[in-house]
Amino acid sequence: MGTEESKKRPLVFAYYVTGHGFGHATRVVEVARNLILAGHDVHVVTGAPDFVFTSEIQSPRLFLRKVLLDCGAVQADALTVDRLASLEKYSETAVVPRASILATEVVWLKSIKADFVVSDVVPVACRAAADAGIPSVCITNFSWDFIYAEYVMAAGNHHRSIVWQIAEDYSHCEFLIRLPGYCPMPAFRDIIDVPLVVRRLHKSRKEVRKELGIGEDVKVVILNFGGQPAGWKLKEEYLPTGWLCLVCGASESQQLPPNFIKLAKNAYTPDIMAASDCMLGKIGYGTVSEALAYKLPFVFVRRDYFNEEPFLRNMLEYYQGGVEMIRRDLLTGHWRPYLERAMTLNPCYEGGTNGGEVAARILQDTAYGKNYTLDKLSGPRRLRDAIVLGYQLQRVPGRDLCIPDWYANAESELGLRTGSPTAVTAENNSLTDSYPQDFEILHGDFLGLSDTLSFLKSLAGLDALVDSPTKTGKHSIRERKAAAGLFNWEEDIFVARAPGRLDVMGGIADYSGSLVLQMPIREACHVAVQKIHPSKQRLWKHALARQQARGQGPTPVLQIVSYGSELSNRGPTFDMDLSDFLEGDEPITYEKARQYFARDPSQRWAAYVAGTVLVLMKELGIRFENSISLLVSSAVPEGKGVSSSASVEVASMSAIAAAHGLNISPRELALLCQKVENHVVGAPCGVMDQMTSACGEANKLLAMVCQPAEVLGLVDIPGHIRVWGIDSGIRHSVGGADYGSVRIGAFMGREIVKSIASTLLSESRLANGSNPDESEEDGVELLEAEASLDYLCNLSPHRYEAMYAKMLPESILGESFVEKYTDHRDPVTTIDKMRNYGIKAAARHPIYENFRVKAFKALLTSATSDDQLNALGELLYQCHYSYGDCGLGSDGTNRLVQLVQEMQHSKASKSGEGTLYGAKITGGGSGGTVCVIGRNSLKSSEQILEIQRRYKAATGYLPILFEGSSPGAGKFGYLRIRRRNPPKQN
C-alpha cells in the first residue's frame, strides 16, 4: 500500500469468518494477507483449519482464534441443503447463546485493542463491534438474512425472528464491501463494489504438471467437490480415454482408479486449477471466482436450496465459463459429453482479480478516517435489493419475475443496462396481437385465453434465442436454450392447458367420499408436446452420448424442459430413455418409479410429468415407440394449495394423449393423473384436484361426490356472489406429514366405527332373537350399513353423534391400532407404529364437512338475501375451525380468516350492505390459500385489497390474490399447431 499510509500507526483488525465452507476462509486469506503486508495485525476468528491461513501467511501479525459463531447451511448430503436443520442449527449456535456470545466478544475485542472489525459474513460480529464502540464492515457476495429467508418461508416459519435479527445485526456495520456474483442485501446501509477476490498463483501450469508427472498433451479435470456424495465410487470409465482426474478432498481410505489422482489434503487448489483443462464441482464463490480468473471451464452440478447459487451461476454463464451436469449423470459416471462440451468453451472474464488488495486498502483507509460511502446512492441501492429480495420470497413460476436482468447482470460488474421491474412486467403482459399469427392452428381453439396466446408467442420466440442469446424474456438462458432445441418446427406440436383449482368446499373430506365444490382458477399450466421418430429427435449431447455408450442406435427418449426452474431450486431439464420404464416387455412397478425419481432431488419434479407416461403404459397398456419432447410452462403457484401439481399432471397427460391419438375422457384422465400423484410421486392426495383441473368450467363450481369420482354437474356461482383466494405465504405440501397423519386418522376412525357397529349389531341380534319389531329392523339395517362402511361421509352427523362420537378415542398409537384392527385400509398411506394419530377430530371433520357442502350447494340456488350470504359464510367459518381441530391450521391462514371477520363486523360494513361473509383454509391445510366469499361489488374488492395490505403490515408478506376462473382441460381440448414459416434448423 502507499507510503503515506505506512507512516501511520499499525492497526488491529478483528476478522470474523462464517462457518460455511472453505470458500469464505480462502477469500479472507487474501484480504488478511494484504492487511498484514501493510503492517497491520489481523486476528482471525474462524472454525476453519489453521493450514488454510498459515500456508499462505507466515507472519507473527496473524493470530488465529478457533471459535464458531454461525453454522452456515447444514447439508443433508453433498448436494442438498437441509433447510429446517440449518435454521435449527443456527438457532442452537447463534440465537440461544446470543447474550453470552455478545458479552464474550465485546470483552475479547477490547482485550486485543481492536481498531476495526471485519465480518465475512458473521451477523453477531457487527452487533458485538457496535456494543464495543468499534466500527465494522462486511465483505461478502451474500448475507445470511437472504439465505435463511427462503428457508423460513419453506421449512421453518416459527424461526422467522432469525431473519430479522440477522438483518438488524448487519445494519450496525458501516458499509458493505460487495463481491461480484452478489445476492440482494438490503440490510446494509451503503455498498462499495470491488473486483473478484482470488488467491494468487504460486507455480506455473508447467511446474505443477511436472511435479504431478502429467504431460502437456494430457487432458486434466480437477474434481473439486468439497465433500463427495456418500457411498460414491469413482470408476475408470467415467473419464474419456486419455484424460486424468485430480481429486480434491478424497479420504485417506478411498481407493481410486489409475486415471484418478488423489491430491494431498493441503494441496494448493489455485495452482492445481490453473494447471487443469476444466473443473468438475459444486458452485460456490471460491470455485466460481477462481474458475473465471484462470479462465477454467467449469462443469457444475447444482445444489438444492443453495440460494446464492443462481447469482453465481448467472455470472459464470455470462462469461461463457459454465456447463451444467445433471446429477444423475454425475453419480452414474456419464461425464464424457460434459467434459467434451467444456473443452469448446472460451471463458472470457477480463475483469479485475485483485479484490483482496482493493478491499484491504478500503478497510485500512476507513480505519484511518477516510470516507468511502456514497450516501446519495444508498437509498436506491437498498430499495432495489429489497425489491429483488421480495421477488425471491414470493416467487411464483410463470407469474412473477425471476431474478431480473437489471439486477443479476449488475451494471457495475457486467456493464449492462439497469431498468425498472415494472417495465419488465409490462413487456411480459403485453398482448399486441389477438391471434397467434406465427402458428397455423390445425385443430382446436385457444378460446381467446390471453395466457394461451402468450404461451404460443413464447413458443414462436424460441428460435430468436439463436439471434439474440441475451433476449430470454421472463425465463432463464438455460431454460430457453434447452427449449429452443426441443421441437422440429416443420412437424405438428400439440398444446394442452389445465388450470389450478380453488377449494371452495370439501377439502380434505374428498378421500372420505364427500361431496366437494371446486372452482378452476385463472392460473393454468400449458404443456407443448411433439412426438418424434427417434432417428429425427435432436438429443441433448449427454443423452446422445448415453445411447452411444450403450452401443445402441436411436431409441425413444423423453426430453422435458420446465420453465420456472430458477424460482424453485430445481433443474430446468430432465431426460430419460423410455426403456427405463420397462423391465423386459412390462412396465416397472410404481415403487421402482418412485425410487427412480427420488435419486436426484433437483429433478424430482419430473415425476409429475414423466409419471404420466408410465401410468398410461401400466393402466392402458400403451407402448411408446417414438421419442417425446415436452415443454412445461405453469403459472399456477407452487406450494399455495391451489393444485399446481394436478394442473401439471393433467396438462401433461392431455398433451401426450393428444399427440398419440388417445381418446381419454376428462374423468378417466383425472383418475389416471391421481395415480401419478399417489403412486409415482408418492403424495396421498384425493381426486378432487385432478377432477377440477380436467372437468371444470370457467366461473362454475364442479360438484363431485368422491366415491371415487362421480361428477354431479356444474353449479353456477350466482352473479351477486364472488369468490377469492388469498395466499397466506406459508408453503403447503400435500406430501407433508400433517396432511398424511390426518388422512390416516380418518381412515382409522372409519375402521373403528365399523368395528363398533359390528359389535352393536351382534348385541342387537342376540338381544332381539328371532322376532324383532319393525323399528328394530330399521336399526339393524342401519348398523349393517355402518358395519360395512365404504366411505366415512356416508355416515350422517346425527348418527355419528348418537352412536359413535363418545366411543371414538381422541388419539391412538399406530402400534395399538394395528394390534386391534390390523389395518386402516388406505392404499396410499402407511401407518407409523410409533406415531400417535388423532382420531376423533380427523373422523368428525369429513362427516360434518359432507353435510356442510350439501347445505352450501343448496344455498347457492336459494333466494338472494343477506341471510343466504351469511349462511354461506358461516359454513366456511365452521369448515375452517374444523381444520384447526384436526391440526391442519396455520398462523397465516388463521390471521387471514380473522381479518375477513374483522372486515365483516366492522362498523363500516354494518352501516351499509355487508360485503365479505366468510373464509376458510383450503385444500390440504397447514398453510396455503384461504377461500373468501362475499358480495360481488366494488366495495368487496376494496376490502380484499385492504386485507392484503393489513396482512403485509403484520407479516411482511404481500399475499397473492386469486381472482377469476378459466376452463378445465376437457373444455379446452387441445391445439394441434404448426409454424407458418418455420425457421431453418441445424
TrEMBL record:
<feature type="domain" description="Galactokinase N-terminal">
    <location>
        <begin position="490"/>
        <end position="531"/>
    </location>
</feature>
<dbReference type="InterPro" id="IPR036554">
    <property type="entry name" value="GHMP_kinase_C_sf"/>
</dbReference>
<dbReference type="Pfam" id="PF00288">
    <property type="entry name" value="GHMP_kinases_N"/>
</dbReference>
<dbReference type="InterPro" id="IPR014721">
    <property type="entry name" value="Ribsml_uS5_D2-typ_fold_subgr"/>
</dbReference>
<dbReference type="InterPro" id="IPR020568">
    <property type="entry name" value="Ribosomal_Su5_D2-typ_SF"/>
</dbReference>
<dbReference type="GO" id="GO:0005524">
    <property type="term" value="F:ATP binding"/>
</dbReference>
<dbReference type="GO" id="GO:0019566">
    <property type="term" value="P:arabinose metabolic process"/>
</dbReference>
<dbReference type="InterPro" id="IPR019539">
    <property type="entry name" value="GalKase_N"/>
</dbReference>
<dbReference type="Pfam" id="PF10509">
    <property type="entry name" value="GalKase_gal_bdg"/>
</dbReference>
<dbReference type="InterPro" id="IPR006204">
    <property type="entry name" value="GHMP_kinase_N_dom"/>
</dbReference>
<keyword id="KW-0547">Nucleotide-binding</keyword>
<dbReference type="InterPro" id="IPR012369">
    <property type="entry name" value="Galk_glycosyltransferase"/>
</dbReference>
<keyword id="KW-0067">ATP-binding</keyword>
<protein>
    <submittedName>
        <fullName>L-arabinokinase</fullName>
    </submittedName>
</protein>
<feature type="domain" description="GHMP kinase N-terminal">
    <location>
        <begin position="608"/>
        <end position="696"/>
    </location>
</feature>
<dbReference type="InterPro" id="IPR053205">
    <property type="entry name" value="GHMP_kinase_L-arabinokinase"/>
</dbReference>
<dbReference type="GO" id="GO:0009702">
    <property type="term" value="F:L-arabinokinase activity"/>
</dbReference>
<dbReference type="GO" id="GO:0005829">
    <property type="term" value="C:cytosol"/>
</dbReference>
